[in-house]
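Hi all, long-time lurker, first post. I run a small reading group and we've been trying to get comfortable going from sequence to structure in the token notation. Rather than ask abstract questions, I figured I'd post a concrete chain and ask someone more experienced to write out its structure so we can walk through it together at our next meeting. Sequence below, copied exactly:
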Amino acid sequence: MSAGRRIALAALAPAACLPAGQALAHASQRGYVLLLPTGYYLAGGALAVAASFAALALLNPRRLQNLLGLRLPLGRVPDRWRFAASLASFLLLAVLVAAGFLGSRDPLSNPLPLVVWSLLWVGLTIVQGVFGNLWRWLDPWYAPWRMLSPWAGRAPLKPPAWLGCWPAVALFLAFVWFELIDPAPDDPYRLAVAVGLYWLATFAAMLALGHAEWSRRGEFLSVFFGLIARLGMVERTPDGRLLLALPGGKLAGAPALSLPAMTLLLVALASVSFDGLSQTFFWLGLNGVNPLELPGRTALTGINGVGLALACLLLGGLFLLCVWLGERMGGGERTLPAAGLLVWSIAPIALAYHVAHYLTVLLVDAQYALVAISDPFSRGWNLFGTAYMPVRAAVAAGSDAAWTIWNVQAAAIVGGHVVAVVAAHLLAARLHPCRRAALVSQVPLNALMIAYTVFGLWLLSSPAAG
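-- Answer (accepted) --
Happy to help. Here is the structure in token form:
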């Protein structure tokens, strides 16, 4: 039984004790009982985003930029520690891949799927967005590349400039498809094959092109985590000093993104949003599927594959349309360069949806990961003293947990959109020196943010199956 179903069953218990019509149960990894009328949250969230835009209209962008430019020294982290951290990460990855081949085929007992899908994809993304670029130290290719690159015997190849980071976009799309559409992404053996082959292919590319070059162009985790790290409150200078910034403070001076980098950021938001939509009764009913009799992921591969592609195209189209309208209203003429800069305002929203959508999964699966890591090969070991730790699925179920979790999720979505509005305000001021033109140019994008806030809160409150 998956972690999501365990949470759902725990959530249904208190729901069954309520009178008919007072409980709205979710049959998914975010199943719980809603305690407040959803309409209040939808209206409140939309008003919060709109009010933040109205308040910023009265604030001089220069003063806001000066405020977000404040930094507090935290200390220094020498770059020499990077090799040791990367080597430890590589050795851990090797153990996890071996566990995928040799350990249990139960996804909740094998540490590989738990670490990849819960701790890496969910947990580390959140850490990157809150604190900064921890992935730079955990990169499992850096240390092996440092050890073997002197023996390569030739200068790294130079890829054409037009290639940009399109390889990373293509690999990120493959990763998203594997996670959301593939029939069995949690199968430890299949995941071990995918992770092992990806590590080897990436390492070969780094030996041929150089570690830094391929990390910028083709290694999708490095590209994605680098974009999300721009939100982090910890900034590291080239000489190793750590500085504490305000949330979103590093976005004020962010450079305009290229088209492929912009595409990757939009795909990240669209994919998480579609993941939530694809589990709702609305989506299943729209495609003629009885949500109480799910036929399995294999039967939905085609439907969800098309849906994922449409979600990416729809979000990208709406974003570009809003930027184009805003530029026309503000007197600008260059839509694509403006979009490359304003897309940074999407990053807080993408992180907020990531937190809201995967929060309950992380709370439960992190416990399973602690259990599995003590006995990675199912040999009865207890390496770290956690092999027999009880997993408390009730941490994400019950009335008290439902109240807390749903409010944390709603706060994450609304807060992410407010930070996005602040970022858009500063970025628009860079595009339009005239204050009035900058303010007018933000209206279409702000309208999209309000609509997306309502959409996100509706996703959280919609009956879902999975």
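A couple of things your group might point at:
Residues 3-14+25-461 form one domain.
Residues 1-36 have pLDDT under 50 and may be disordered.
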